[in-house]
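User: Hey, quick favor. My workstation is busy. Could you predict this chain's structure for me?
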Amino acid sequence: IDKHALLLTTGAEATMRGNLPLGVFTPYAVVGAGWARFDLAPYWSNTSSIEDNDWVIVFPLGVGVAYRHDRLLADLRGVYRLTFAEDMVPTSGSTTEHRDMDSWTVTLHGGFEF
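Assistant: No problem, here it is.
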C-alpha cells in the first residue's frame, strides 16, 4: 500500500435547477448527467489490484437553498453523484464485480452583488 498515492478526479456535468422562490430564501433541486475520470497517482507505483484509471458516467442529484438580501448572496447545496460503469476497484475476491464510486459534496458559496 502506497501511503502517498492520490485519487484524482476530473470530469464535466450538466445540471438543471428547479427553484421555489419564497422571498429571500429560494429552495431548489438539481438533477443532471456527466462523466468523470478517476486517476490513481503516481500510477507507476501501483502494485495493488486497483486499476490505474477509470471513466464513469455520473448522475448528480441534489438539493439546496439560496439566500438573497439586498446585495448579499449565499448558497448552500448538497449533491449526491451516482456513478455507473465503474471498474477501478474490484470487490473482494471478484474479478467481474466492482465497488461503487458514488460520492457526495456539501458546498457553501457566498457573494456580494455589485
